[in-house]
Amino acid sequence: MTGKNHMLFGSVASLYFLPKLGYEPDIMTTTAAIISSLIPDLDHPRAKINQKILPIKNRLGKIFFYCGIGSFLLYQYGIENRLTLAIAILLIMIGFSRHRSFTHSLIGSFAISSVVFFVLRNTLPYPVLLSFIVGLCSHLIGDYMTITGIGLFYPFTDKRYRFVLIISSSNMAEPFIGLFFIYLIIHYYINNDFSMNFFYSLFYSLFYMFK
């Protein structure tokens, strides 16, 4: 699934899932879901976020960038602080991981969600953190429906798992999937009496942020 469709899927998942748990979606929750929907692809040097932050945009550059930050945290803070240690290990794992392996696995998703939760639990409201997890999970679901599949149970097995209904980012299915997600977003805002100005400002600012 393409990066833009991941962002749209994350937005849709947050908008429709949070009300089921009694929380009202807002621009913070939707933003959290859109950002987190791109997190698993940090294992790929050409991912949308990596294209913005990597000084050297290839696999070696990715390894040096994430492993460098992780190593700096270990050097600066040692291993006494468990949270800092967890962040450092997570960054190093992202640096070395192959595409759709660790960050696309159940263990990787749990590790990323746990670190974000414990780092930001006193800073961000609970619905925003919950929306972050929803967006992260939406990425796995999206890639689970692609031809390549995901390493769901990595590192216990390298087997890729995929849904029976598979799609390819190179075929005509992706544009239609994107249009379907856009329809669901518009449908949500219309049915919940949000102003169209709010919808347009939210959608266009976030959708084209990583264009």
From TrEMBL:
Segments spanning the bilayer are 83-99, 106-124, 130-156, 163-188
Q: Name one Pfam family in it.
A: YdjM
Record's signal peptide: none
**InterPro entries the UniProt entry points to:** YdjM (IPR016956), YdjM-like (IPR007404)
Does the keyword field hold Transferase?
Answer: no
Task: Alphabetically list the UniProt keywords.
Answer: Membrane, Transmembrane, Transmembrane helix
Record's superkingdom? Bacteria
Name the chain's protein: Inner membrane protein
Q: Source species, please? A: Marinisporobacter balticus
